[in-house]
Design a protein that fits this description.
homodimer; about 170 residues; alpha+beta; Endonuclease I-creI; four-stranded antiparallel sheet; about 45% helix; about 20% strand
Chain lengths: ~170, ~170
């Protein structure tokens, strides 16, 4: 058996447990609609090595150190994160990988919705009102069924300033 | 590529993220030394299906529902656990599986120490004082480097009554 194939399946299994496909909609003054869309893939783990290996297999991303604190302020074990934030890498590296080495948990649904979004952004559809609303709907769908902690109380994430988004909220009412 | 091979690697990757190999030493009146040794393999996940699939691939174990509560008493999302508690299954099914589909994280060290214990128990070495002490040393080694939450304050687990073990503690002093 080809060892790179074996590694591909192994990493896919690891992501099934530890990976996250995320979409963020955020305020962006310079864009026509006032909002930007950001896609990201994250895998967290206490151990750096497996994330470096995952990065190598996927051919992109960067491993970051993330210090976490408990409620009582005590530092927890260091946590590492592999983050892939480049839209190009998501489109050209992650999608071919996860189409080949399929996920087996419900995370696959998240992946497929995320993939749709990545492809919409590639076609510039997030720059249209219709496209942006569709992406927000996708994002809501991905958040359904998650634990309260993981679910957002508002339909959209904000990168930078964490304000309410009155304009978008009006859109929903129309 | 053989799809059962692919599944094997996928499940190994999943276990690299979510699995746990554990050893428990507990009071057992009927045994000569007064202590028994128990080996177990556990994988936890919010989703039952992937655990049922893992069970199928490994050819043993049972999926249990585990309700968890937050500190404030609120029920968290249900959590499922695949547990393999039979020593025979650990020896004859898990060891061949994880020897073939190798783990890639530091969990592999845990697995190798656990495997040594399973094989020692199969040879009845846990029934000797020397063997039992070696198993306790292995267990301590596995707990080193884990987060405080995962680490035990005493060198041994107790199934049933959670008492101190004065006899064993004296053994360490010798």
């Amino acid at each position: 058996m080809d060892s790179s194939e074996a590694l591909g399946h192994h990493i896919s299994g690891f992501v099934d447990g530890e990976g996250n496909f995320t979409i963020a909609v955020f305020k962006q003054r310079e864009s026509r609609l006032g909002y930007g869309v950001h896609v990201m893939f994250v895998v967290g783990q206490a151990e750096r090595e497996i994330l470096e290996l995952t990065r190598q297999i996927l051919g992109c991303g960067r491993v970051h150190l993330r210090h976490q604190y408990n409620k009582d302020g005590f530092k927890r074990m260091p946590q590492f994160e592999l983050r892939i934030q480049s839209h190009k890498d998501c489109l050209l590296k992650l999608i071919p990988f996860f189409d080949k080495y399929e996920l087996l948990t419900k995370k696959k649904n998240d992946y497929l919705l995320w993939k749709t979004t990545v492809q919409m952004v590639a076609r510039g559809e997030h720059l249209t009102r219709k496209g942006l609303l569709k992406i927000i709907e996708i994002k809501k769908k991905m958040e359904q069924g998650r634990s309260k902690k993981g679910r957002k109380s508002v339909p959209i994430d904000f990168i930078g300033r964490h304000n309410q988004l009155p304009i978008l909220e009006n859109w929903f009412k129309e």
